[in-house]
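Recall from the previous chapter that SMILES is a line notation for molecules. Here it describes nicotinamide-adenine-dinucleotide.
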Amino acid sequence: MNILVTGAAGYIGSHVVKQLIEETDHSIFVIDNLSTGHQKTIDKLNDIFQQTRDGEITFYREDLKNFEVIEKIFKNNSFDAVIHFAASIVVPESVENPLKYYMNNTVNTTHLIKLCNDYNVKHFIFSSTAAVYGEPIESQVTEETQTEPINPYGRTKLMSEMVLKDASCANDAFSHVILRYFNVAGADIHNRIGQSFPNATHLIKVSAQTAIGTREKMMIFGEDYNTPDGTCIRDYIHVDDLASAHLKALAYLEQGNKSNVFNVGYGHGFSVKEVIATMKKVSGVDFRVDSAPKRAGDPAVLISNNEKVKQVLSWKPKHDDLDVICMTALAWEKTI
Ligand SMILES: NC(=O)c1ccc[n+]([C@@H]2O[C@H](COP(=O)([O-])OP(=O)(O)OC[C@H]3O[C@@H](n4cnc5c(N)ncnc54)[C@H](O)[C@@H]3O)[C@@H](O)[C@H]2O)c1
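With both inputs in hand, we obtain:
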């Protein structure tokens, strides 16, 4: 198959392309504007390609907002499926500059879906997020839990989900899988690729940066939540396990199954303090951690119910181990 991957120079997309290279014989096309992604990630993926099988990625350094250019790419190729990662992803920035998020996430996604319909692309896999659930009453959310995002980022993703669902409903030849990711962390087990976004706000990356001295200290935002140690609990999933869910989703659609939505997480969580203690243990560094006030919109506990992805996609995580997640994040941080 010919697979178009948008945003593959970034963190999660690159791990999915790595698996597409190593575990399938699909031809891989990438569109990325390198706004937060990196050319060196594309180069590394091409190294992996050459070590694995003949060929290389066809890379278009383009911005999805340039509709005419993107349409030409569709016209000149015959894609079977699109896996769409490209997006703006920083929640506080989405509050300050919502239109950037609606344009880049919802408008560009809608255009991409339109091109899929105009050029007979059969399948679409979409990167969604647990942020679509907002602050759910239940701590373990299923795909049926009410979606009520509390920030523009979450709303741009939920709106894209709606566009995708309506487009699939109206076109029998088009099907999709929506994957709602929980807290993605860690890096390639062989330390070839990882998260390079310098201002990332993700807890495990920040704690790895503090362990190696890139940051002088880190913060805990709130210590009086209704949890055993008072800090927030989240469902941290290793990026390679998340990536494998995309390959399962692609096979599922290729087998002719119906459009669907899946949570992707491990179904259990760790507190902020547990994560920091693990990073201190695996790094051997007792780095500085300060207390800070709670942030608006942080639910005490947010954990996936992952029964559906395990049953329907036969997804089997391999790295459900906080030590491994922290060790791979730390090893990667030392390389950048
Ligand atoms: N990282 C997480 O914890 C997390 C959690 C839930 C959902 N997601 C979703 O996963 C996807 C990937 O996230 P990530 O962490 O890999 O982010 P990332 O910033 O590392 O990757 C995004 C990639 O998209 C590219 N891009 C952005 N806008 C573009 C545009 N207009 N045209 C072309 N390329 C563009 C960037 O250059 C980058 O390479 C996003 O859709 C995000 O919303 C991420």
